[in-house]
Design brief:
heterodimer, A: 128 residues, alpha+beta, 4-stranded antiparallel beta sheet, B: 458 residues, Alpha-Beta Plaits, 2 domains, 6-stranded antiparallel beta sheet, 12 helices, 19 strands, 27% helix, globular
Amino acid sequence: MNVRLLDIAHARSGDKGDTANVGLIALEPRWYPIIQRYVTLERVQEHFRDVITGPVERFELPNLKALNFLLHGALDGGGTLSLKTDAQGKVFSTAMLRMEIEVPDDEAKNVGMPGAKQRPAYARSPKE
Amino acid sequence: MSKRDTGDRVVRVASGQGFWGDWLEAPKRQVEGGDVDYLMLDYLAEVTMSILQKQKERDPNMGYARDFVGAIESVLPAVATRGVRVIANAGGVNPPACAAAIRAVAQKHGVSDAIRIGVVTGDDLLPRIDELIAGGHALANMETGEPLSTVRDRVLSANAYIGSTPIIEALQRNANIVITGRSTDTALTMAPLRHEFRWADDDWDKLAAGIVAGHTIECGAQCSGGNCLYDWQTIPDLANVGYPIVEGHADGSFVIYKHPNTGGRISVPSVTEQLVYEMGDPNSYITPDVIADFTSIQVEAAGENRVWLFGIKGRPPTDKLKVSIAYRAGYKAVGTLVYSWPDAYEKAQLADRVLRERLDRLGLQFDHVLTEFVGVSATHGPLAGPPHDPPEVQFRIGVRGTDKAKLERFTREIAPLVLNGPPSVTGFAGGRPKVEEIVAYWPALVDKTVVQTKVEVV
């Protein structure tokens, strides 16, 4: 099944110079192995391909059920040089959560991952 | 009883300011909402020092975070009579002037006898830059590798990030308000914990724990429900948000909590979001005192609005200090207009094409031009997908360059579009854009041995 990261993770991002960092945290600890396995360096590079100019670095924090990504060349020069609305990379977090990963159905079922209709409260639109 | 109500001695360090410009109410709320031992106020962001340096050039009695004076005034009774001690990097590029302003406030309120101000200096390397470069310190940009000599004539400020040691000396000499210049944000919290628990300067795990405590609360409410994505709709009473407090234990473990009857939420997810904020390599969070390993941090719920952090590992620091250098890097200006339905995005796109053609015809070239369409793609770019008939779109165009006159001319080209460009346009009430000087950040490293800090208690 296709799973949108918004449905299984939360995130916060920030800046260091022209690099944005995105910390991606599993919504449920038992979903961490899924993001650890399927949110790969290659997938994240592909996701941000048209948004950043530099490489991506990936780090694992199993203790926090989180991954940390450094997106280089993300901030139009960064800091005060940047002309971007998001010069400090504050919402690269939510841009990351747009990403979809392909998870084998049985694996998703084993860890009780939600289908699109059982998203956490904050991820649902008011009509759902 | 939660698992950390063990009855052993605790030291409480409250965060009252996460950056210069944070909530003015927070310091007073922290000292009046319940018992705390220390109030930690973080004022300095990467380019703050250069703003302060410019102020000091205009007036030698300026160059510190003015908000701090009001903050101290609001907490003075707690400091003078209840023994709450304040640690702040509000001194900017002029800690002595900051101390004088605090002394004046204490005198005004008749409590001057009860105030001992510790002043930490020695971080300011601006007067020594040429000497350092001549001595073989390239102060190369950590991102680009370029030596500082390439921008030497445009440098505005240069400050080494200093650690907990001078703050501890001030506390040992009974200062109850400690003012530093460019201390690391985390040292402001680690220092009182290290001081109270007498942690040795090579007790790496405990020092690292103090750094993690500092990282957790250095952005104020950002760990207690502010800017928290997890379950954000259910976070209660943000209008009355409680700022975080570290309840430190001698073994290095600590609880993050907030005062009763405050809003917001402290939970494992809210704290975890802050832990990953502005993170680089989590295995090596480098500070002047210690390198903390963020992959060792254990986080557990410990009661309502209480989260326990423990198990933190550290190792010896490097022999370098990071230096925060700011330099003049030209000018920028950003103009905006708002286009309405129908076809709001297409109108905004046409405005962009028209404006760029006019800039070309005027021969106005810039180092960089960036257009964004707010409401369509400004924050997520192409990841946002195609727009769905938005009710309005903001056209936002920024330019950057070194010729100020060209930027001034650019600012005159926005408003005419209201009458001579695409239709259904509004949102120009702010007048023409302002040209701002860019003060850019130049991170570098320097040998620890060249930085000598000094503590005075006045």
